[in-house]
Amino acid sequence: MKIIHTADWHLGKMLNKVDLIEHQQTMLEQFIHAMEEERPDVIVIAGDIYDKVNPSNVALNLFEQTIERLNQDGDVPIVIISGNHDSKEKLSFAKYWMEKQNIHIKTTYEDVFSPVEIKGMKFFCMPYFSPHYMRSKEHDVESHYDVYRVLVDALNQEELINDDHVNFCVGHLFVQGGMESESEKDIQQGNLELVHASLFKDFDQVLLGHLHSPFSLEDQRFQHIHYSGSLLKYSFDEEKQPKGYRVISIDNDGNTSSKFKGLQDPFAMKVYRGSIFDILNKEVEFDPDTYLKFELTEVKEVNNAYYKLRNMYPNLLEIKPVLEQSDLITEQGEVNIERSDEDIVKQFYEFVEGESFTELQQQYVFEKIRGIEDDETNSLNH
Amino acid sequence: MKIIHTADWHLGKMLNKVDLIEHQQTMLEQFIHAMEEERPDVIVIAGDIYDKVNPSNVALNLFEQTIERLNQDGDVPIVIISGNHDSKEKLSFAKYWMEKQNIHIKTTYEDVFSPVEIKGMKFFCMPYFSPHYMRSKEHDVESHYDVYRVLVDALNQEELINDDHVNFCVGHLFVQGGMESESEKDIQQGNLELVHASLFKDFDQVLLGHLHSPFSLEDQRFQHIHYSGSLLKYSFDEEKQPKGYRVISIDNDGNTSSKFKGLQDPFAMKVYRGSIFDILNKEVEFDPDTYLKFELTEVKEVNNAYYKLRNMYPNLLEIKPVLEQSDLITEQGEVNIERSDEDIVKQFYEFVEGESFTELQQQYVFEKIRGIEDDETNSLNH
Asked: Which NCBIfam families does this chain map to (chains A, B) (predicted)?
């Protein structure tokens, strides 16, 4: 049995005003051809199909055409869940008719309890649910850990996960492993989004979306839990990540293996860290098709660096000053590694504009930052 | 053979901030039950399914559920075209899968030339096309008349309309009949949207959407052309229009008849024309579930009439002062029936606010109106 696992397509995503739809199309074209070779028994797409709750017509069309071709007139079953970027309603529109062609779109709480059954396998679908959504289903939950604990408990209580089938979980969440010494409660308090891997011990295979690296969870104890990674690189943090899909194989004796297969990534990006003078003097060369982020030292003496550099490199998407150890010595001679948020804004402004920050500007930024912090505190408490 | 004709559902429409979705749901529920009785061979929905190019999730859901129930798991074929309120892309999303269940969604130029064939009938679908859209298909057209002339000519040239089948046209446009003395060119120049009924002479039956009255075209010479009317009353002009659907019957000898069947309209509206004092003194009574429009005489002496009346009648949606003959005598003693746009705004402002219009306000309104007129002129020329 061969199961293909992909996720986080983010159709319609813009990265710093660059529209990625053509790169997405190129990548999906490769994926479709790969599937013609693989001839899988099921394809699983684990959430964040679209980048926005209100996808553009171009993004909708790309989804529709891709799914139609992958499905091969009903021959290849497809299981799709919604992620945190998807609108449950928009993604599941027309699911009634797609279901008849073996395309299963799962977006709701109720869907968790009616697994998709394909060739002796059961796919328990856990779309992204906010704690708020779960409260509307009368579950008193605070964190994402609570959400998935409630779901797994309910499945166990109804004895739905059992040995009659191979039990798959398809989810879209931030699973954390490898932290044996910390209690689950600690994890929950540290990051409300984290869910500990041990929660999914009863499933034979767990296919996840949300984290963009295909190797997000590399832990010997949780070899049955996988991230496929995203379709493309969607931030400069992903510069060195391979992009592709996973193949889960189950042999006749029930042995399972998972393998990541890379595709040719059409969206090249590079983070250059170094001296701004080397760039201005053209001592470094960049591929004209590669999108760039500069992390620059020695920037204090250059005015309007950003605009100058954008003119030289139209593919420059992001710029960040890198403060060296000597910049961090305060007037009192102390090392001030932990800059305040206000200082970061002030230094960035002075770097970009080449002018010093006024009292009035400082006050404005200070108030804004306090406002954001208050909002965050409030949203954590609700 | 029995063909059901409906159109102009405008799902998601708001009328003066009143959300009509529940009334639409009630009416569609009746329609679904009526179809269970009628047991039609085809249902035709002639455009303006949604009210907006970006329909709300609630509107999308209502469409999806209604079509699913009407279609009865593929047993009842449905033909749907896009109207001027629909987005071609949004309406046709998932049409590939719906087609397999006998639901045919037609939105493009190319669709015109592949009629839907059902039980010896051909449905030629002419969705709403703007002249701009047709120019993108390399047809040099200016008016709606040009658009449909091009389409009918092309169908004739390819000899697609012929006697092998009963030829239906499904369209969404403003057809005008009964003007024998005027040339088609006059009609075209007078109103760019009008299309003369004689253009459709080669079709056996023409089922239209766009105009909201089921009796929009009552002309002995064009008995084969029908409007079904809209699902609900969508403006106070429609106060007295019945709402329902049409039944087109074709007997074994090929004789055709069309009959309008009314449904129980859940959205009651009333236009009251009379003295404002009768209302303020409660000498007129209104049903509390009926939405109201007041056309009022003697309003000059009442300040803030609108807000007063809204407090008394929460269902009051529109108010309009009615100027009597004596109001229209200018200082020079001449009858000034044709008020300028500026005068209309000025008089309405004074009526609502009970204050006179300042010079500054007059100037502002004057400029705005000129701006709108310029925009209109420009858009007609492109």
From this structure: sbcd
Bridge partner list, B233: none
Closest Cα in chain A to B89: A57
Query: What are the DSSP calls for B14-47, one per residue?
Result: EETTEE-HHHHHHHHHHHHHHHHHH--SEEEEES
Domain count, chain A: 2
Identify the domain boundary among A262, A285, A300.
Answer: A262
Q: Kindly list the residues from chain B whose CB atom is less than 8 angstroms away from the CB atom of residue A87.
A: 57
Q: Which residues of A touch B (CB under 8 A)?
A: 54, 57, 60-61, 64, 68, 87, 89-90, 93-94, 96-98, 100-101, 103
Of residues A131, A116, A145, the one with CA closest to residue A3? A116
A91 and A172 housed in the same domain: yes
Tokens for A226? Answer: 């996988």
Full domain range(s) for residue A288: 269-378
Q: What is this model's ipTM? A: 0.76
Both A177 and A295 in a single domain?
A: no
- Considering the domain architecture, whether residues B44 and B107 belong to the same structural domain is answered as yes
* pLDDT, tens digit (0-9, with 9 covering 90-100), for A287-315: 888 999 988 877 664 456 777 788 888 88
Residues of B in contact with A96 (CB under 8 A): 64, 68
- Nearest residue in chain A measured CA to CA from B69: A96
Domain termination site, one of A238, A262, A286: A262
The tens digit of pLDDT for each residue in A220-233 reads: 888 899 999 999 99
SS3 A184: helix
**CATH number for B132:** 3.60.21.10
CB contact under 8 A, A96 and B60: no
To the nearest whole Å, the CA of B56 is away from the closest chain A CA by: 9
User: Quick check: B57 and A100 CB within 8 A?
Assistant: no
B206 and B284, same domain (yes or no): no
Mean per-residue pLDDT, A8-16: 94
Token look-up 């200070």 returns: A366
Same domain membership, residue A307 and residue A246 = no
Chain A environment of B100 (Cβ under 8 Å): 97, 100-101
Q: Are residues B84 and B214 in the same domain?
A: yes
Tell me phi and psi for residue B294, to 5 degrees: -105, 130
In chain B, % of residues over pLDDT 90: 53
Same domain, yes or no: B117 and B211: yes
H or E element, residue B125: strand B121-126
Contact between A57 and B97 using a beta-carbon 8 Å cutoff: no
The rounded radius of gyration (Å) of the Cα atoms in chain A is 24
Q: Roughly how many angstroms between the first and final C-alpha of chain A, as a whole number?
A: 44
Q: How far is A58 from chain B (nearest CA, A)?
A: 9
Rg (CA), chain B: 24
Which of B54, B89, B98 lies nearest to residue A61, judging by beta carbons? Answer: B89
